[in-house]
């Protein structure tokens, strides 16, 4: 059973930065892709950033230019660097990985507020 463990969430002021981490229990290069999703209260979960096995990245329009997804295959960890955070970025952020099955982490809360 694959495990994904997120960390790095917290409370930050508007304009601030946070880096989320997602540690996998196996080689992240075995996944077709890894992604970060977010879900705000009362809203649907949606993908904000994705990195494929080949290293291609894509971003939701709402975070493009502010968020960066990256990986460290030696550490089996994927990161989400979030800069210039806005109150509307407040959500629970989930790590996702696709192999033969779809795997999810438990989520980490990000709150952007003054």
Describe this structure in words.
- With 114 residues, the chain is an all-beta fold.
- Helix content is 0%, strand content 52%.
- The protein contains no helices and 11 strands.
- The chain has strands spanning 4-7, 10-12, 18-24, 33-39, 46-52, 57-59, 67-72, 77-82, 91-98, 102-104, 108-112.
- A hairpin with a 4-residue loop joins strand 5 and strand 6.
- The relative contact order is 0.32.
- The model has no long low-confidence stretch (mean pLDDT 97).
Percentage of helical residues? under 10%
Task: Calculate the mean pLDDT score and round it.
Answer: 97
- The oligomerization state is single chain
Instruction: Please state roughly what percent of the residues sit in beta strands, choosing from under 5%, 5-15%, 15-25%, 25-35%, 35-45% or over 45%.
Output: over 45%
Report the strand count: 11
Order of helical and strand elements: EEEEEEEEEEE
Terminal Cα span: 40 Å
Spatial extent as radius of gyration: 13 Å
List keywords for this structure.
seven-stranded mixed β-sheet, 52% strand
Q: Mind sketching the topology for me?
A:
Blueprint: E1 4-7, E2 10-12, E3 18-24, E4 33-39, E5 46-52, E6 57-59, E7 67-72, E8 77-82, E9 91-98, E10 102-104, E11 108-112
Parallel strand pairs: 2-11
Antiparallel strand pairs: 1-3, 3-8, 4-5, 4-9, 5-6, 7-8, 9-10, 9-11
